[in-house]
Design a protein that fits this description.
This protein has helices at residues 11-24, 31-42, 49-78, 86-100, 104-120, 127-134, 139-150. 19% of the residues are buried. Residues 135-151 have low confidence and may be disordered. With 151 residues, it is mainly alpha-helical. It folds into two domains: 1-47, no CATH class; 58-150.
Length: 151
């Protein structure tokens, strides 16, 4: 039973009908329920449960990676060091965030070596660390502590 006129199928009308369907069925407007109601309104198939389970596992793994990185990031910001002063840590973190905030995978890729360098209190002289940070502009910040130590 479609709740919208078959001739009127704009996205806004479909969204309204999907929400109405959820209200009539007394279902919470969760993403899963909404996707199912939308599919029923458009006459399409309901989303596959296997895809939902795989996506759920992937999101859980991503969440664990971000939680671990956040814990290390906080510990790294609080720890003092010879190569990485608190100001340099904050400045390098801000640069990585500014240049990578629109791509979570890239942000994670750039933050991990930065936090690793903080943890070891060494400059980003390892090629794999420097390459992943260099594109974000944080390499300038990373090189400054090494230059200061050489002086």
């Amino acid at each position: 039973m479609n709740l919208v006129d078959p001739r009127a199928t704009t996205p806004a009308e479909l969204a309204k009908a999907a929400l109405k369907r959820l209200a009539l069925a007394r279902q919470a407007p969760t993403p899963e329920n909404y996707a199912r109601a939308w599919a029923e309104e458009t006459g399409g198939a309901s989303p596959a449960r296997a895809d939902d389970a795989a996506a759920s596992r992937e999101l859980e793994a991503q969440g664990q990676a971000w939680a671990s990185l956040t814990e290390r990031l906080v510990a790294g910001l609080e720890r003092g060091g010879r190569q990485w002063t608190a100001a340099r840590r904050k400045q390098s973190l801000q640069r990585v965030l500014q240049t990578s905030r629109n791509d979570p995978a890239r942000l994670l890729q750039r933050l991990q070596p930065l936090v690793q360098a903080w943890h070891g209190d060494h400059a980003l002289d390892a090629p794999e660390l420097a390459e992943s940070i260099e594109a974000s502009g944080a390499a300038d910040d990373a090189a400054a502590p090494a230059r200061a130590a050489d002086a």
